[in-house]
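Q: Given only this backbone (90 positions), what sequence would you predict?
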């Protein structure tokens, strides 16, 4: 991960830990790694869904195609997965 991205993400995570929005009992660098890996792979999934390379995802013509996906639903599922894990609920 680029240093600037890591610093930016680290700042967000540090702030979220201070306000109690995320756990404080895990190693900071592990949380930064986890969130970065998850967001990068999610971007790759979106790119795959619209049929482009990840490096082309952020081109204006491709971002407009991402709007056609059920992005809020996918993000909701991803957040639920992060919160509850893979075990069946109930």
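A: Predicted residues:
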């Amino acid at each position: 991960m680029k240093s600037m991205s890591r610093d930016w993400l680290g700042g967000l995570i540090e702030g979220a830990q201070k306000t109690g929005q995320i756990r404080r009992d895990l190693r900071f660098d592990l949380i930064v790694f986890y969130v970065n890996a998850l967001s990068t792979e999610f971007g790759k999934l979106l790119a795959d869904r619209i049929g482009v390379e990840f490096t082309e995802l952020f081109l204006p013509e491709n971002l407009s195609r991402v709007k056609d996906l059920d992005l809020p639903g996918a993000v909701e599922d991803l957040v639920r997965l992060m919160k509850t894990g893979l075990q069946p609920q109930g």
